[in-house]
Amino acid sequence: MEYTTALALGVLIPLISFTLLAFTGHKLGKPRSSYVALLAIGISCALSTYVLLGWLGKTPDEREALAAQAVANQFHWADFGNLAIKVGVKLDSLTVIMYFMVTFIAFWIHFFSIGYMEGHSDEVDGVSKYHRFFTYLSLFCFSMLGLVISSSLLFLFIFWELVGLCSYLLIGFYFDRKYASDAGMKAFITNRVGDFGFIIGLAMVVLFLGTFDLDEAARAFAHQFNTGTGIFEASVNLFGWHVSGGTLATLMGIGLFCGAIGKSAQFPLHVWLPDAMAGPTPVSALIHAATMVAAGVYLVARVFRLLTPEAQFFIACIGCITLTITALIAIVQTDIKKVLAYSTLSQLGYMIFGMGVGAWVAALFHLMTHAFFKAMLFLGSGQVIEGCHHEQDIRKMGGLRKKMPVTCWTFFIGVLAIAGFGIPGMHLGLGGYFSKDEILAVAYERAFNLPALKETDAAADDAGEHAHAIGRRRITSDRSKPASNIALASGVEAAHAPADAHHGDHRTGTLEKVGIAARLPALPPIMFWLPIIIAYVTPFYMMRCWWLTFCGKPRDHHVHDHAHESWKMFLPLAVLAIGTFYCSFATFRPLIHDAAAAATNSPAIVAIDGEAHNLEEAGAGAMLMLNHAPGKNPHDWLAYGVGFAWLIGMGFAAALYRNGLAAAERLRRRFALIHTALDQKLYFDHLYDGVLVAGTRTLGVVCYWFDKIFIDGTVNGVAMLTRWIGSFSGRQLDMPVQRGDWGLVDAVANGMAATVLDIGSQIRRPQSGRIRTYVCITAGAAAVALLAVLYFDQLAAGIDWLVTRTSTLAQG
Amino acid sequence: MLDIGLNHYMVLSALVFALGLLCMVTKRNAIGILIGVELVLNAANINLVAFSRYQTGAGDGHIVAVFIILLAAAEAAIGIAIFMNFYNTLATIDVDRGDELRH
Fold first, then answer.
1. Fewest Cβ atoms nearer than 10 Å: which of A451, A489, A787, B63?
2. Domain that holds residue B49
3. Does B103 reside within a domain?
4. What digits encode the pLDDT tens for the residues A150-200?
5. B48 lies in a domain?
6. In a domain, B36, yes or no
7. C-alpha to C-alpha distance for B12 and A512, rounded to whole angstroms
8. Between the CA of residue A411 and those of A233, A278, A378, A536, A539, what are the distances in Å?
9. Residue B57 near chain A (CB below 8 Å)
10. B41 occurs within a structural domain
11. pLDDT digit string, tens, across residues B38-69
12. CA gap A450, A606 in Å, rounded
């Protein structure tokens, strides 16, 4: 089977399952409807495994040929003026790997859900909601997989909205509970804010690049950048603010990124994700940890070629802010799912930050490893919550180690993975160790090693290899910030990658990138130090969560006595734990690296490959590689800087919570102010409630009173005035001689009124008050009018004939 | 293979329109009527886009269609707000029950 066909089938099968369940789910009933969904995603998973295994066995040339074939097989769907809209599968290593990740995790979460939903009430007003859960899950799988394989931004956007809808439906699954339906609405509305920016970005892509297709758009962007045409010479007047050239291109990139801010819950819009934990736990694992929230990072990865250095810098800032504040908030959370939610936010911040600093490979690699261990952590928390009779407060747990051993140790593997467990100096560690290290290494490069890059560029300039003067001049004029001179620059040798042997165009691409690299703004050192510090905070709060849940003495015997675990729920945990151990480094990293060459090949951007563990091997491709003199490798620095962060952070947490909550309580009283601020989530919710929600409500009240006082007042005033005039004139003009004797005016008026009443009571008969009758009458009248117009000639002829005939008869 | 032309779109549009009208006439549930209205509007959209594609060739029909989609969204928002009030007053959204203005 062709890969594109297999992937497309894998998307459609969950859709079939959704349709089936939507119409017959209530008849299938409690256990059976879940099997349909499980079977559907199982087939998708098998197909994706088939594609993945086949893809792994292909050489780069074969992969390229397959990708070209996929482009050729695109279906021309419609034309919108000159804009062709094509439906197609984007086939490259990133699609294959993302697709596999989504189906694999989704399959095991479906499996888990069957066990999870067994013990949950699923009735509202006596109507079972059980099948709805799996219906929505199937719809989600369809939309998420569609998002992953879309080759066009338009379809990416459509599926993007569909996953948002599924997220809303599933967060509000227990819609009879106020907090759940509120959380659903919050998630949906917050995402709309981000999508507004996304739509503007899309509109700019269509306006300036003239296509929806990801590859075509990237080519057009590169061409416009090199020749200084299109978006780089356009200018727009925006509320009196003149925007042109590179700034406009930056705004386009930021617009597209706004979608990711919403979906990936980045800094100003991060408030929805913690509330989204109101949904059932498998939903939190699948949608709000592993797949959908990572779609924002995936989007940035896909539109990476449309970003300017300034847009990248903006992305890095947002990521850095998010990862910092959310990690701090995670420290004080007491709800087990909230801790995980904030840690998800923080890790998403790392990914977005990675994208922003140009660590394309590292960010996606982190996405993959994170998907596995975070799904596992959430499923573990689901098992705990289920086992403890819906107790979510970790302060009431404790000592569950013996009651649920499998959950405990798989959860611990997850904690190790997110903490970045690894042994510095050796190639030994869990996925999170490598991926986070890579992001930090690239951040280090961007913060401290940039001058070296600039020197290389100057050399390239001297050698006359640099041809694209227009684009560069444009960029130069946009940026006036001189590079900060950092002492570390000396002795560090940076060189661009040797171009890929069989792609001539990559050579120029690489040289252009060096031109860009020289003009990259150096990352402020704070943006390197914050992620480093948070790398120490992450192990602390995760270990705190694990320790309070599973270790120590039981703090609430009621909870402790009920605790139990079931195989239906810990089997997925074990499988995902194995995935965390194995897949992340062995399978994901090489494939993402393979996709990187094409996905970052644009002159306007620079991507830095952070894998200095093995630089010689990583030399090929279109990305900018950093070669380092021995001993100056950032990974060597980082290995000892943060290599043991997991040990320090986890050790500190274990020491603090060794004897229960007492020590932490003392600490809390000591720093009461900070604790309160963090406990209140840094008052973002208060701010949004106070300004936006209250503002809207105030506007509503103002409108209401405007309507009541001004509009109603005018109408009522006119009516009163009329009545007053009427009664006044009545008294003046029409004075009855005797009681009961009507004057002339009265007689006329009443007579008219009586006639009107008569006519009215005849006319009102068709006014039945039934809207459906009115629709009938309107439609019938329209039909008659239509027929009259259409057959006007015949009608006229008929009347003519009738008249002639009558006159003939009269004469004869 | 069947060559799809303007006529096919017109027939499709007529069918959608008729179904929408049928929906509006037969449904007593207010939401059902709203859905019928949407169908009717979309039938008009199909016609607009088809004519713009086959007759004028320019994109103006598309633009009007997008406006109609926006309008339909606004209409749905207002419609549902009215039904909320309807429900608050009569504790049902059966439109046949809302005949008090007749008297």
1. A787
2. 28-92
3. no
4. 999 999 999 999 999 999 999 988 888 889 999 999 999 999 999 999 999
5. yes
6. yes
7. 53
8. 54, 21, 9, 19, 13
9. no
10. yes
11. 999 999 999 998 888 888 767 788 889 989 99
12. 12
